[in-house]
Structure formats: C-alpha cells, structure tokens
Amino acid sequence: MRKRNFLTQINPLLKIIVCITILFVALLLHDIKAISVLVITLLTLLLVSVRINLKIFAYVAIALLIFMAISTWLRDFHTSVISSLRLIAILLPTPLLASTTSPSDLVRAIQAARLPNFIVLSLMLIWRFLPVIQQEAQRIIEANWLRGVNVARQPRQWFSGLLMPLIFRIVAYADDVTVGLETRGYDPQAPRSNSQPLRWQSKDTIFAVSAAAIMTVVGYLEWVA
Known about the structure:
Elements: H1 12-28, H2 32-49, H3 54-74, H4 77-91, H5 93-100, H6 103-112, H7 117-146, H8 158-183, H9 202-223
C-alpha cells in the first residue's frame, strides 16, 4: 500500500535504475557485513515507505526461516545466513518500486527510456493486471465459501473451483481491454503527448547521491575491508 513520502516523489526512472543496480550488486556480494548494510537499508526504506500487511509479513518471515533451516542442513549456518540475506536483498527492491511508484509515473519512466509504444502498453497492462488477478481470485474463493467449498483446504478443487474460473475471467478481461482500445482508436504508431513530463529535481539528486554513497560503503566492505 502506497504512502505519500520522500520515495514516492523520486524520479521513477531513477528508481528503476537504482533497483537494477541493487539486484546486480546483491548477486556479487559474499561478505556478511556488506550484505547486512544493504539489507538494513532496504528494510528501513520498506518500513518507512510502505504500509506493511502483518499477515503477509509473517508468511514471508516463516518462509525465510524455513529457507535458512534447509540451507543450514545442506551446507552450514554461515552460508545459510549469507544466502538468506542475499535473497532478501534481491526480493526487497521490487515491492519498494511497486509500492512507491504509481502506474502513471511508471508509464512516463518507460516512455522517457524511449521504448516502443507497444512495449509500454504491454508493460502497463501487465502492471495493472496483477492486482486484478488477485481481486478476481479472492472473489472466486469467496464464492466457493458461499457454496460450502473451502478451496484452501481442498487441493482437488483448485483446478475446477479456482483455476478454471480464473482463466475465464482473464480471457474476458483481455477481450474487454481489446474492445476498449479499438473503440478509442488506439494506434501504437501514433505520437504520444505528455502533460507531466519527467523532470530532474533536487530530491532526485539527494536520492542518487545517497544511493551512490551506500553502494560505495557496500563495495568497500566487500572488496577492500
């Protein structure tokens, strides 16, 4: 859930570049101090910028504990901790970007990158489609509850009670989007206008310098110290 804060006002293209950089750096790190600095920074940003669902947070924590237990059993505790921290560093940038960037800002960022219009449309539809799938799945589960079927506790009902209705809803949604684009005269080759083009602000400079400083500290701990 998105809150109005410093991170939501940052240039979305800059946030995308920083997220990609974090993913690349996280894959290269092997020192526990360096990974810890990166993870602590990301967790702090997540807690400050996003309203966290405690139930989902608990599920993720349990999954990480299970992952650590299996990793410790297969290797050793030190390797398990490093692997878990690296996994957290890889996973956290995505919810941070998604929760602090509105769909319109994402479109402007992709357009600023000079990507083809059909790619911009495809990415935008996918971005918007993810919460739609979640909403439709929840409606289907609630409809099954009203019929006395608990899909979560009856795996045999997953295909007929959840997957099939969800597939039909996805197809119907795709048809609605196609009809909507055609009736509005959408042309992927037509030039696009932008009433709110991206502009570099002082906040972007502060964010970029801060991100570079953190990456410098992480790199120093990993390859110099």
